[in-house]
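Let's see one such:

===
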Amino acid sequence: MSDTNPFDDPEGRFLALANDEGRHSLWPSDIEVPAGWRVVHPEATREACLTHIRTHFTTI
């Protein structure tokens, strides 16, 4: 078992998620999507998913 945080893995595969409130999240693709969230960008590199989030989640 690795002590590495899967959210910080630069070589990992990720999804971009969104919820009904319009919030977005980076999510490791090998972890089940939590209830209340949906995939808005398919499995891709960490950077590709972050770019999608930055482009579509512009309000904080």
